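Sequence only, no structure available. Ideas?
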Amino acid sequence: MPAIRLFLDHPGFFLHDPDIDLFPDDIPIFTERELPLVVRTDRVISVGTIADVDGDVELILDCGPDLQGVLVFGGGLPTPSGALVITQSSGAEVLRLSSLGPQTDILVGVDDVRFPSRVHILAR
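Reply:
I predicted one. Tokens follow.
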């Protein structure tokens, strides 16, 4: 199970196919907690985390079998390249999962539904 604990450059990250543009105009940046924890377009899923002043965030990306944490999102995402990446708002890739199909079902679980410091992404 690929996992990383890191200091995010912004309190949120993106899930997407590496061959798809990272920042569609309709993905909000997580600066206000009035926004939902997870926002999805047809190409990108954006997940908010704790504010960067609060410390590191643990990200886990795997294929299962079980989701860890409280389910906050479930849905499909196109992965035409057969891969899914997690990137920071700077564009830096932090985790990658390959050997997926052209459409991937995504589940997102968190340890805290308001300010998560541990996020598990299950891709099938």
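The two ends are 13 Å apart (CA to CA).
Hope that gets you unstuck.
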